[in-house]
């Protein structure tokens, strides 16, 4: 397994998207998020997705040069249309818009419609949290159904992820970020690339029988909601917030018909920020201050494993499975690019190439 410096992977990713007609700033935005996902340890939402995105560009499901347009703009709300641009670039614009409104007015709600795949939501909610804003974000999709509802025999939902991030001053945000399906589609792609099974209770095959082989999913199988009826209920709420409330269904020209709902609250909306941060420290210390159970070294906050991985990978580089690296190398070669020429050695790649705030 080869380790690439974050800066090198960012450069390679940017150049690949530029080669297919993406403006430099948009290509860099997409690379920011993909590399940030790797740094957080979520390789399923990193460069593994490049081949898929290039295919979607060829099919017209992503418009690489598209820029978001703010259709409705009030003091505390906005409706952003992505015109089927890269979901990462569109979501970054929407995140910054929601953050700025929340800092001015205390709260903000932003709807995003007609955009491509956003990937890991924590990349956006943490961006807001690093600017002193609590953010909730969810995605619902009117596209191909992948997840069966609780009690159902056929899929009717997407993976419908949800994410929350709360700021902690100079410390890493507390972040909850997961799909409401038992496993994210990207993690199935990663398991398939590694030739590994997935946890029991994650997927069924095309006949509805439980399986742990990711190939069964890609051969017509389906995802299951996590936690039975509880995960299913969250998936429904995500679909309703990101669909009917966000207005995604009004933009029928969108191939994927994806909607995003963001709700942002300034950390000083209800009390001075110093009091908020003092209370955050007290509560998180109470939660994690108990003795660890057998088999555990310590009690971690949500998002803390990702923060630790981020620090480690800044120094050690981002590991890429051989199959992913070979695919990335071939994609680059087909576009007239040489990955080795774009690489930079470790440790000069230390320091994040992303615009984490």
UniProtKB/TrEMBL annotation:
InterPro entries: Mal/L-sulf/L-lact_DH-like_ah, Mal/L-sulf/L-lact_DH-like_NADP, Mal/L-sulfo/L-lacto_DH-like_sf, Malate/L-lactate_DH-like. It holds the Pfam family Ldh_2. Transmembrane segments: none annotated. Keywords: Oxidoreductase. Gene3D superfamilies: 1.10.1530.10, Hypothetical oxidoreductase yiak, domain 2. GO terms for molecular function: oxidoreductase activity. It comes from the Bacteria. Belongs to the LDH2/MDH2 oxidoreductase family. This is Ldh family oxidoreductase.
């Amino acid at each position: 397994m080869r380790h690439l410096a974050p800066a090198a992977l960012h450069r390679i990713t940017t150049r690949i998207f530029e080669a297919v007609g993406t403006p430099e700033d948009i290509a860099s935005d997409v690379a920011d998020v993909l590399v940030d996902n790797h740094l957080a340890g979520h390789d399923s939402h990193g460069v593994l997705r490049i081949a898929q995105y290039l295919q979607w560009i060829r099919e017209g499901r992503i418009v690489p040069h598209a820029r978001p347009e703010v259709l409705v703009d009030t003091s505390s709300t906005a409706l952003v249309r992505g015109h089927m641009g890269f979901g990462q670039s569109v979501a970054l614009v929407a995140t910054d818009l929601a953050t700025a409104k929340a800092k001015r007015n205390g709260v903000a709600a932003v709807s995003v419609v007609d955009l491509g795949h956003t990937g890991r939501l924590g990349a956006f909610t943490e961006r807001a949290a690093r600017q002193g804003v609590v953010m909730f974000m969810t995605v619902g999709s009117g596209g191909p159904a992948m997840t069966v509802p609780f009690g159902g025999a056929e899929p009717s939902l997407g993976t419908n992820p949800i994410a929350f991030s709360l700021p902690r001053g100079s410390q890493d945000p507390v972040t909850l970020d997961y799909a409401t399906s038992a496993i994210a589609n990207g993690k199935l792609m990663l398991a398939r690339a590694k030739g590994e099974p997935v946890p029991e209770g994650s997927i069924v095959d095309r006949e509805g029988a439980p399986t742990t082989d990711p190939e069964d999913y890609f051969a017509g199988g389906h995802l299951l909601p996590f936690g039975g009826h509880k995960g299913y209920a969250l998936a429904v709420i995500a679909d309703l917030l990101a669909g009917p409330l966000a207005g995604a269904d009004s933009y029928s020209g969108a191939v994927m018909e994806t909607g995003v709902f963001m709700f942002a609250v300034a950390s000083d909306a209800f009390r001075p920020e110093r009091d908020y941060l003092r209370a955050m420290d007290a509560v998180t210390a109470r939660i994690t201050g108990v003795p660890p159970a057998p088999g555990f070294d310590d009690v971690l906050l949500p998002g803390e494993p990702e923060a630790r991985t981020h620090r480690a990978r800044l120094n050690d580089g981002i590991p890429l499975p051989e199959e992913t690296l070979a695919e990335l190398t071939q994609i680059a070669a087909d576009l007239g690019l040489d990955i080795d020429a774009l690489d930079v050695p470790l440790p000069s790649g230390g320091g994040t190439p992303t615009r984490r705030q």
